[in-house]
Specification:
The termini are far apart. By secondary structure, the protein is of the alpha/beta class. The protein folds into three domains: 38-218, P-loop containing nucleotide triphosphate hydrolases (Rossmann fold, 3-Layer(aba) Sandwich), CATH 3.40.50.300; 222-306, Helicase, Ruva Protein, domain 3 (Orthogonal Bundle); 310-413, Arc Repressor Mutant, subunit A (Orthogonal Bundle), CATH 1.10.10.10. It is built from 17 helices and eight strands.
Length: 415
Amino acid sequence: MEKPLDKLFDKFLQGQAIFRQRNTLRPTYVPEDLPYRDEQMGRIGSILGPALRGAPPSNILCYGKTGTGKTVVAKYVLKLLVSKAEQSGITPPLATFVNCRIVGTNYRVLKRLCDQIGATMPDGSEVPFTGLPTDEIRSILKKKLDAEPNILVVVLDEVDSLVKRDVNQGNDILYSLTRMNSELENSRISIIGISNDLKFKEVLDPRVLSTLGEEEVIFPPYNAVELKGILQQRVKIAFNEGAISDEGVINLVGALAAQEHGDARRALDLLRTAGELAERRGDEQVSQEHVREAQKVIERDTITETVKTLPLQSKAVLFAVYALASEGKRDIFTGECYNVYTEIAKILSIDTLTQRRISDLISELDMLGLINTTVISKGRYGRTKKIRLAIGKRQIGTILDEDVRLSKISKELLA
C-alpha cells in the first residue's frame, strides 16, 4: 500500500530539478569571484599582507549595513592569504572565525578560538563548553599560540552584538584579545571586527578603541545594477539551465533587495526561497509569482528571528508596547511604555533601566522595523516619542509567548 508521502517524494524524483547547487545561494558560501568589492578586498589585503613576512597585521574594523559583503570579503581575502602562504612555502597564518551573535560570552569566544586552532586541555581532551575559569582558558589559548611562532587572525563577525548584549562583558572580551599580544612571546593576534552598526565605536572602552580601530574599511550598499550582476553570477552556479529563463525574475529580485538598502544577502535568500517554492509545487521554472510569494515568507521569518534574538531588556520594552497596544491604545508615549516596562522588569527580576536608556532601546526597535516612532514636541514640557507597533499584534504575541519567561507574565499583565 502506497503511503501518502510516497507521492510527494515521487514528485521530487520525477520532476525537473530546479537547483544545481542550492548551497551557493546561502550566506556561508564564498564564491571564486567577488564582483564590485575590489576596493575593499585590496584594502584588507594590503593590511593583512605583512603576515606573509611574519609581521603582525594591524587590526581592522569593517563597517556596513547587513548584506554589503563584509563577511564574505573577509573570508575571501583570508582564504587567498593562506593559499598564497602555502604556495610560497611559508607557514600560513591561523585564520579563525567567530560569529559574535551566536557566541556571545567571553568564555565561549575563547572556547571557539581554542577549538579552531587545536588548543586542548593538559590531558589532551577538548576544552569543555563550560566550567573553567576564563583566565584558565586564556592560558590554554596562549600556550598553544606560543608553542611555535605564528600569527592568529581572528574574524569577529557582528562584533557590535557583543557590546549591545552587555557593554561591560563586550568590552572585556575585546580588551582581553587585544591585550593578549603584550603577553605572547612567539606569536601575535590580529583582529578583524565586522559591524553592522556605524555607531558601534561610541560605546567601546577607550583602551579597546585605541588598539582595535587601527584601520577602518567601509562597505557601501550595493545598487540595483550591482545586485543584478551578483544574482546573474549565482544563477549560473546555483540553478539548472532553463530554471530561470525570465529576465524579469532577476530584475524583480534585484529591485526588491535594492529597496532594502542594497542587501545582497536578502537578494540571494529571496532567489533561493523562490526556487524552493517552485520546486515544492513541481514547477519547472521560477517565475515572478514565486518571487512575490517568497518575499512574504522571508518577511515573516525575518520578524520571528529578529524578535527571538533580542536581548531580554529589549524584549521587555517590546512586550510593554505590545501590552499597551493590546489594551486598545493606538498611540503610545514613552512615559506610558516606561511605566509598563518597570512592572515587567520587576516580575522578570532584571535591572530596571533608566527612562533615557529605554528611549535608546525604543530607537533600536524602531531601527529594526518592529515599531514605528515619531518624535513630538510638548512645548515647555519637552519632547516625547509616539510609538506604534509596526507588525501585527497576533504575530508578535505568538513570538513573545514562546519565550518561557515572558509567557509567564503575559496573562498577569493582559488580564
